[in-house]
Structure formats: structure tokens, C-alpha cells
Specification:
Blueprint lengths: L2 E4 L4 H12 L4 E2 L11 H11 L3 E4 L13 H22 L2 E7 L23 H17 L3 E6 L2 E2 L6 H11 L3 E4 L3 E2 L2 E2 H13 L4 E4 L6 E2 H11 L6 E4 L19 H7 L6 H10 L4
Parallel strand pairs: 1-2, 1-3, 3-4, 4-5, 5-10, 6-9, 7-12
Antiparallel strand pairs: 8-11
Amino acid sequence: MRYLITGRNGQLAAAFIKRFGSRSREFMAPEESRFDITDPAGVREVVGSYRPGVIINCAAYNLVDRAESERERAFRVNAEGPRLLAEEARKQGAILVHFGSDYVFDGRKENGLYQEEDATNPLGEYGRSKLAGEQAVRDTLGDRSLVFRLSWVFGEGRQNFIVKLLEWSRTQEFLRIACDEFSVPTWTETVVDVVLESLAQGVSGLYHLTNSGYCSRYEWAKVILRQQGIAKFIRPVSTDVFRLPAARPKFSAMSNGTIAGRLNTDIPAWEDAIVRFFEQGNT
């Protein structure tokens, strides 16, 4: 089986590349300058020449606030790009693994974690672009697609909350972290584990893929600093004090119960994932 990975420079792609390399799996992860998923001719050339059995789309526009003023670019990367990949996957008879976001929800659910069948209602352009992308993939490929909605992803790399928090702890006298925004921290290694097992079992469809449990940003920050032995005062505040350009769902925690049940597996709690993340030497 040949795997084609997009978005090589991101932390999620890096986790797949590392895993495939350690297991001697046949894969290609072109530099993003050579493989722009928004370029129809480029997508046709790369997919057509490599002829993968599975395409894993890790490319994404993740600048939530900037998406409000760069709507066209957000939709080009998060919606049009996945559609192009799905069309080429269909021609090649390949499976496309695509990643969505918890920001497709508005955060107003009050009776539990979000399930796959819950109504979507994105609050901002980023969430709208991610919803359009997952819909394009499913409409184009149907049972040849595997779509996972993720949340608060962290892994090896510089673009995640853990890295930002540790940088703030070194440069600021005290920290202000939102206590009214809830979701699920999700380790890239957990994502890789579940994706590969899903492919091995021939699973298709739309699923929520997170570590287990949920927390606020404030609670997450306390666990991170405690694991690193950093004594820094954290003031819990409302997200409103930051006056961010993009509206965010206050509660977007998703249940991983459907995919866990389908695979007959237990997905580790987010706290355990944080511990293992640091045990592997990540900071």
C-alpha cells in the first residue's frame, strides 16, 4: 500500500511521516512548495504519477482569526483543495483520509459531548471552510472517504497551544488563560493510531477523533505547567477579554465513542496523552 501525505510541514503530517518511516511503509510526502493542493494541475500530476492507495490530507489553513479577513484563502485550502484531492482519489480508486474540526459546531449544546449526528453551525469563516471541506470530500468519494473531526491538536512542532504556553511562561510575569472555552486536547500520536487502525479495518465515514475527556483552556494550561514543573500564576479569564476577531464555540468537546466502539478500542484520556507527550522529550 502506498500512502501520499499532504501538508508535510505541519505537526500532524510529521507524526504520520515519523510512524511510516519507523515501520518502513511506502509513502511520499512532497514539500508543500511542490504539492499545492489548491492547484488542480499539480494535484493531478502528483496523484496520477504516484498512484497511492491512500491519501492522507494533513494540509489545512488553521489561522482562525485571520480567516475572517482571508476567507477566500481559507476556503481555497480547506474546501477546494480537499475537493480536488477527492476527485483525483476517485480516479485512482484511492481512499482519502481528511481531517475536519470541532469548530463546525456553535458550542450551544447543553446535554453532553458533541456526537457525529449533531447539527453543525460554524460561528466563523474558519469553521465554515472546514465544514465545506468535509462535505466536499464525502460528496465526491462517499464510502472511499474517511473524515475525522479533530480538536486542540498538539504534537511535535511549534504551532500548538503547549509550545505557545511554555513561551508565554518564560516571558510573562503571569498568564491569562480562558476558563470558558472547552474542548479536547488531542495528541497527534493518538490520531495516527486511530487512523491506521481504521484503515486496517476498512472503516469509512465521518467520525470524531479526540483523546478522551474534555477540559477548559485554563485546566489544560495547569496540567501542562505542572508536568513541566513550572510555578507560574495563571489567572482564569473569559475569552471575551482577548477581543479576538473570530467568534469561537465556548463548548465544542466531541465524543470519540463512535470510532472507539467501531474499532473496539479504548482511546487514552487527554491527561495521559500529555504525560506521554512530555515523556518522549517534547517541550
